[in-house]
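User: Structure please.
Assistant: Input sequence and predicted structure:
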Amino acid sequence: MTISCHLPKISRFRKQRWICAGLLLYLSVLPYLAENLHVEVQSVKAQVGEDVLLPCHITGYGASELELQKVGVGWLFITLNGTEEDLYSFNGQVHRPRRNGSRVSEEELQKGNASLLIPQVRIAEEGSYKCVVVMTPNRAEGMLYLTVSANPKVALSSSEITVEAGTEKSVMCLVNQFYPSSIQVRWFEISGNRENEVTTGICTGSLADNIDGTFNVISRLRLKASLKDHEKKYACSVEHRTLINNIFLTATLHVTEHKTQIAIIIFSVIGSLLVTSLLFGVASLIYVKYFRKVPPTMTITIPQKLIHLEKAVFSCQITGFKPKDITVEFCLETKDNRRKYISTWSSSEINSKVKPQDMDCEEQVSLFLTEGGTSRLDSYFEVEPPMIQSHNDKTFSITCNIVAIFDMYRHDGAKLSIKVHHTALLHPATECVVFSVEGVPPRLSKILAPHRVVHQEFCMLTCPISCFKPRPLSISWFKKQSEGEEEELVAVVSMHEAFTHDAVEEVPGYTPSISDAVQLEDKSYCVTAMLLFIPTALEHQNCLFISEVSHEATKTKTRMETWLQVSAMPILEPIDSFPNTPKSDESVTLSCRIHSFFPQKIEIFWCKDGILMSEKPENTESTADQIGLYYCISKITFMPSRMDRGKTISCQIKHESSMDPRCVEWNMMTLMVSPRISEITSDSPVLEQEKTVTLKCQIEDYYPEGCIVQWNKEIGVIKMENPTLNPKTGLYSSQTTMAFAPTMDDHGTEIVVEILHYATMVQSIQKTFQLFLKGVPVVLDIVCNPEVAGYGKPFTLICAVSGFHPENIIVDWYRDNMKMTDGITTTDVEQDSRGLFSLRSALRLVPTALDFNRSICFHVNHPRLQQPIIKRSTICLAAMYPTVFEIEKIPLCMEVNKLQTLRVQIADFAPRDIQVGWFKSQQLFNMEIATTESQIGENGLCFAESVIKFTPKWNDQNAVITCRIVHLATSHVTEKSCILTLQGVSTNVPNQISESDDVPPHLQEDSGSVQMLPIDGEMGGVQIQCVTTSPKAGEKVTLKCNFLDYDLNKTELKWYKGIYPLHNAKVEKKTCKDGFVSYVTFQTDREDRECRIRCEITTDGGGQEMDVCYVLKLT
C-alpha cells in the first residue's frame, strides 16, 4: 500500500518571487541584429581542471579598435532544460563575472576579441554557451559547445600473479575518475605475439559515481591455471573517448607445482598396490571434478559515497561454488534494530526473478513528498535477477546487482546483510555492509546587487543557493561596517523539510525572504535568498553584507559576501542670475545649487549652447549635511554679448551615480541688448542754403523694442520707423530721420540726436552732425604746438579755413582785442576738385609772464558771411610762484638812530601779481615800503625788488624783521626774516640767524621759506587739469599734470585722493619738449560730489619738493 500526502507551503514573500530574476538582467540588447556586426565562435574540448578559453571574435565593427564605453559583452550558459543562465557580463565600464575566475581581457576586447577564460573547468560546465555582443544599436551572437572529459586512471591489482597449478586466482583492473561514463574494458591473453580476447571468467561491476561527477568501475578476471599456462601474460585494455590509444596494462602469470614427497610416490608406485592406487586416483579425480562440493566465495562492492535520494548500484559477487544449487537472502537492519527482509533468490529455477519478502508497511511509505503531489520517490531496494555462469572446472558464479535509493534520515547507519545458503556450507555464509548516507552541501553563487545602489531607494540583495539536499537549511544575513568591526546580525530565515512555512527573524529595516524551492532531477534543491532594505549613504556606504548558509544535514556553513557602494544622484536647483535681468556687454553671475549627492567627488561644467565656456567657474567645497549627503554651489561670471540672446546656458555635472551627465538650463531670452547707433548721415554730400536735406540715424540690434529718440532741431520733419525684428538674432532695428531746409544761421552748428533705450541705458547716447553749407567758410579750432606753452620758448597757433567760395577772404589774429601783425604766416588760397578754396594761417610767438592765460582770437571775413567767424584760444601757461632771496642789510652794521635799508630780491614768477608786506616782531611794519613794478626777464618770467627804510631804536635790539611775499595766482606765501643786531647794544645773538635758531615755529619749514599748498591746482611750473568733459560721479575721470623743466627720469609722483593713495589708478607719463605730462585715470565713487586730488612730487635727491592740489567737482 502506498501512501502519499501534499502539504502546501505558505510564503510570506510570494509576490517577490520574480524579483531575483529581474536583478539578474544586466545586459540590455536591442531586438534586431546588425547587418555588418558578426561574432565568430568555435566549439572547444577540454580536460577537467584545465583553464579553457571560449573563443569569440568580433568582426564588422568598422574601426581599428573598439570603444569600450559603447560595447556590451555577455556570456550565457544553456542548461539541459534550455534555460539561459548569465555567466559573465560587461556593460562598457564594469565587469561582472558570475563564475569565479572567469574574465574577458579589456586589452583584447579593444582588438575585437571577446573570448572568455574559465579557469579549472568542471564536468558540470559541459554544455552550450552563447556569446552576445552589443554595440548600440547593433547586436550579434554566436553559439558554441564545450566538451569536458576526464581521462581514466587504470591500475591492475597485481602485475605479477603467482598461483599453484590447478587452483584459481583473480586479477582486478581498476578504472577510476573517468568521464563520460561510456567506457569499454576488455581482457586479452597474450601468447608470444598473439593476442586472444578472453570472454569467460570476466566479471565487470556497475559504475560508481564520484563526488566530482566522474565514474569508477572494476573488472575482475578469474584465472584457473595449469603448468602449461606458466609465463602467460594477461592484459586489461581500456577504451575511452579521451584516449587516442587504448590503455593496455599487462600481468604475468607464474604457475608453481604442488610440493609432494618423492619417496612416498616411489614406494606407492613400486608397491603392490600400484593398480589399486591407480584406480583410486581415477575415482578421486572423478569425485573431485563431478561430486566434490566447493563452498562459495562472496565479495560485496559498494560505491565510494552514498548520496541522499540518489540511485546507487552495488554488487555482490558469489564465485567458485559447486554444486549449482544456492540460495541468497537480502535483509536490511535499521538503526533501531528492526530487521526487514528485502528479497530472496534461489537457483532452483534458472534465471528466476528475485522474490520480494514481506516488509513492514512503514518501509513502503513514500519517504519524500513534493509539493503538489505530481511526483513521488519511494525508497526501495531492488535486486536485479542474477545469471548463473558455469566454468571449465565445473564451478559456478553469480553476480547480484542491487539498486537502491537511500534516505539519509532512514538509512544512514543501516546494515545490509547478504546470507548465502549452500550445501557445501555447514552454516549459511553472511556478509554485512553498513551504509553511510550523506547529504549534498549547498553551493552559493555570488551575491547579486543592483548595478547602482541608490540612497533611500529599495535595494534587494539576492544570493542563489543551489544543488543541496536534503531541504532544511538556515540563512543568516550579517552586516559589517568596516574592517576590524564586529559583524551585526540583521536577518535570519530558515527552511524546513516540511512544506508548511519558513521561520523568519528580522531586524527592523531589513526584510529577508526565500524564493520557492525548485527540485532538480537528482532531487536536490535550488533556492534564492533575498534581503530587502532601504540603504542610506551614512549607514551603508562601504558596508560588507554577508550571507551565511547553514546546512544541518551536512554540518556545513558556507559564506558569500559583497561590498555595498551607495550613491545618491545629485539634484540641481534652477539657475539663479544676478542681476535678474541681464544686459549685454555687462557682467552677469549665474549660480546653481547642487545637493543630495553621494559620494563627494563631482565634476561641474558650464556650457553655452553645448560648448564649454571659457570662463572658469567658482565652485564651493562639497559639504556633507546631517544625513551624509553632500551639497555645493557653482557660480560663473561672464559678459554676454548681443549675439548671445536666445542662447542657452547649462550647468552640467558628472557623478558616478549616473551614467549620463545631468544638467539644468537657463535661457537668455530675457537678455537686454543696448542698441548700436550709427553716425548721422546726410542724403546729400553737399548741403546748400534753403535746400531740403534729410539726416538719418540707424538704431540696430537692440532688445526690447522700446526706444526714445529726440532731435535738437526744432524746425524739421522727424520720423521714426517701427522696429523690425530679426528672426535669427531676435533683435530689433529701426531708423530715425529728420528733414529740413538749412539757413545761413545753421552753418557750423551741430545737429544732435539723443537716443535712450530705457531698458539698458541710464543716460541717452548722443550723435552729432556738423552742418556746413556749400561755399561758406569752415573754420577749424585753433591748434597749439606744443600743446603746453612754456615761458620764453617759441609757441605756435595754427588755424585752417576751407570750403569757401569765392576766393576773396580776410583772416586776422587778435590778442586782447588788438590786431597782431608780427609772427603771422598765411598760406596762399588753394582750390580743390569741388571748386572750393582753402588756406592755413599760423601765429608764432614767445610767451612771457604777461601772456599768462591771455586770449588769442582768429577772425575770418568772407562775402558769404554776414558776421565774421571768430575762433578763440587761450595760451595755457603754468603759474610759477616766486623765488625769494635772503634779506639784504644796507649798511651791514646797524646803529641806533641811523637810517637803515633792508632789500629783498623777488625773481622767476608768473603771472606778475604779487603782494609784499614787511613785519617787525609779527606786527605790520608801518614804514615806507618801495616795491618795484614787475618786469620781464630773459627767461620770460617776472622779477621785482622790495625795499624798506627805517631808523632803528634801542628797543629794536634782537627784533625779527620779516618780509612776506604772497603770489596771488598760486596763493603761495614765502617769508624771509632777519634779526636786528645793533652796535653798541649788548647782545649774544648773531645778526643773521638760521631757520632753526629762535625762529618762530611758523617760519621753520623749508630753509627759512614757507610753502603753502595751492588751491587752484597750479604751482611753479606744475599745473593739474581735468581732461574728462563734464565728469560724473561713479564714472572714470582722467586728470593731467604738466611738469615744465622737469626730468621724467628724475621725478617721482604719487597721487592721492584726500589723505589716501589712489588705488587701482592708471598712471601714464609722456615726455614733451619742455618737460613731461602725467595722466591719471581712476574710478570715482557714486556718492562723490567733490574730490580733493593731490599730486606729491619728489625729485631725484629724495626730498619732497612740492604738493599740488586740485578740487575735482562732479555732477
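The CA atoms of residues 754 and 766 lie 5 Å apart.
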